[in-house]
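Internal tracking record. Fields below are filled automatically when a chain is submitted to the structure queue. Please do not edit lines marked as system-generated. If the sequence contains nonstandard residues, flag them in the REMARKS field before resubmitting.
Queue: standard
Priority: normal
Entity type: single polypeptide chain
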Amino acid sequence: MSVQIRKAKRSASKMRLLLTGPSGAGKTYGGLTLAKGMGCERVIVIDTEQGSSDLYESILPFDVIDLAPPFTPERYIEAIEAAEQAGADCIIIDSISHEWNGKGGCLELVDEIARAQFRGNTWSAYSVITPRHRAFIDRMLRSSAHIIATGRSKTETAQVDDGGRKKVAKLGMKVETRDGVEYEFTTVLDVVHDGHFALASKDRTGIFTDTDPKPITVATGKLLAAWLSCGTPAPVTSAPTSAKTAPAVQGPAPAEEKDEPTLFGQISDYIAGAKAVKTLGAIADRIDVLVSEGQLTHDQAHDLTEEITKRHDKIEPKTAKEVAHAI
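SYSTEM-GENERATED OUTPUT FOLLOWS
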């Protein structure tokens, strides 16, 4: 076969984006917000977090595939294919970490295969697991839909030499999946707790041009959509250091961004739109976290809790007989 050389030309493409961060940093919220800004019409979330994505149903209409253990690569592939067949133009995989270190994920499979086939030799077992994990990564890359994946991250440490003494040094945050997976994505955004700001650790779009964190907004999704369609989006400018201050998008904000609801208002909307008691319980847990982080006051938490109680009674109204029995 002869070697062919062609001119480089970027054509319209699909997004391959990874959002990393610790639990509660806002990865799911960020993924749905980006999908909204990108103008996606059929969003399907592959949810491995026990229905946590349902908390954000007010952001945009989306459907959910609840993925339960075992979190094998093949089950992820099956879920991606099901979402594509259902017509998804954006698939949010929340999260990919379970495929690696969740129950029934690759690390557990390595141990099982090592015991069953290689007399406990885990290195040999990786020869079986690596192609299966690679098949999952390749399936994401070949998807006909936009892929927005999330991954849990934790502090990475290493033992270093300090003047002849060994000590443990923090090396930063590391996503919980196999090393090198970030190389497969177009953009990797590391999300932090404080204000759900994101910092690009990898960016092929040229949108995130500096090293300052920026909030994930609908406008960010619009910039990504413009880049994907071969437009020329303006780069995102530096965000102020305070997580509670101005937007980080150059130029005037779109009309729909000017009246963006407050965190209290968003949670109130989630409560009003909740259709299951399970969802209300998850919202209550999230409120406790936000209070501990200083993002909600105790008075606001009290008001929201009262709203949850009222909504709970509407979802599951008790009869007089049930109340008497409970007493």
